[in-house]
Amino acid sequence: MPPSDHAHALRPGFSLAEARRSTPRQEPAALLSASFAAAATPAETAHDTPASHAAKPLPLARSHNFPASGHWPLVSLASAVVLLLLWWISTQAGWLTPLVLPSPAAVGDAFLAAQRGELQGGHSLLEHFAWSTGRVLAGLLLACLTAIPLGLLMGVSRLARSVFDPPIEFYRPLPPLAYLPLIVIWFGIDETAKVLLIYLACFAPLVVSARAGVRSASAEQINAAQSLGATRWQVLRHVILPAALPEILTGVRIAVGFGWTTLVAAELVAATVGLGQLVMNASNFLRTDIVLMGILVIGTVAGVFDLVMRQVERRLVPWKGHR
Q1: Does pLDDT of 5 surpass 80?
Q2: 8 A C-beta contact, residue 246 and residue 317
Q3: Which of 59, 88, 128, 175 is most deeply buried (CB count within 10 A of its CB)?
Q4: What is the pLDDT of residues 202-241, one digit of tens each?
């Protein structure tokens, strides 16, 4: 404050409003430049040259794609070729007997014989494949129709979780062979018992995945839909279900694997045709070549199913992994 202002401030009856009117008003730009000039140090002033004000380009940020998505097809093909080569070398060198590990040629001959229907049962490999695929797809379809709605209901309703969570969590860790005798006693030895066993194997992972997928819907999305007047059914249909769809499709992929894993146990129930029955009959006669051929066929078919599910997943949920 200037000396004259101090004098006015000391005068009796001098008000704060009069002091403000008597003080010269400064523009905001002048005040800002004055504050920067006062804050500058001598060292900064000495180095304040036009060259220092030249815009320097910032380095590009490194992008990290973690976790890595996709795969290298050539590396996958090379690993398969290496495994086949090791298999061929071990059989040709005599490291393992044909009873333990038959040669690729013997497995190929068993495949051709099964295709011609020359193995036990008289059924061709295509018939075995058709029956097994039908059983797995029937159990998987029934599980999808019942487990996915139940999982969504358990995800949004505390009452449904309280009612259905204990029995599902009780039977989920049990292997199918543990309750296979009960299924045979209750439902007989026809196709119902086989499909039901595969259904129970696929049911639990679908319920768990659908229930976990409900949590993918954020509270902001639900509140935004409700603020626009959406009903509970519309929120479930247009918000929760699309958010849970990636988890549901992952559960379907897991359920497909469980279905093919349970196939051999399901076809133990008085089956006369099927890939699992073909493998079990061959093991009784120590036909390792047929056993290995059946294992390769089941693994290949299950792998094709998984590839199809991956393509479906890319089409239905292209945003997965990019949120």
Answers
A1: no
A2: yes
A3: 128
A4: 999 999 999 999 988 888 888 898 888 888 888 888 899 9
CA-CA distance, 211 to 244, in Å (whole number)? 8
Whether 238 and 269 have beta carbons less than 8 Å apart is answered as no
Q: Give which of 72, 101, 140, 71 is closest to 296, Cα–Cα.
A: 101
pLDDT exceeds 60 at position 36: no
Query: Torsion over CA of 84, 86, 92 and 94, rounded to 10 degrees?
Result: -130
Which among 247, 289, 232 is positioned nearest to 99, based on CA atoms?
289
Which structure tokens are listed for 178?
A: 């543990």
204 contact partners, CB below 8 Å, separation of at least 6? 147, 168, 171, 172
Give CA–CA dist 295/302, Å, rounded. 11
Measured in whole angstroms, the distance separating CA 197 from the mean position of its chain's CA atoms is 25
Task: Say if residues 204 and 154 touch (Cβ distance below 8 Å).
Answer: no
**Token pair of 227 as six digits:** 């603020």
> In the 8-state DSSP scheme, what is residue 317?
-
Which residues, 6 or more positions from 177, have their beta carbon under 8 angstroms from its beta carbon?
Answer: 265
Q: How far is CA 320 from the centre of its chain?
A: 9
Residues 287-320, buried b or exposed e (16+ Cβ, 10 A)? bbbbbbbbeebbeebbeebeeebeeebeeebeee
Report how far residue 311's alpha carbon sits from residue 216's, in angstroms, rounded to the nearest whole number: 22
Which tokens belong to 235? 């929120």
Identity of residue 310:
R
Q: Hey, what's the torsion of the CAs at 128, 142, 172, 211, to 10 degrees?
A: 140
Output the average pLDDT for the chain: 80
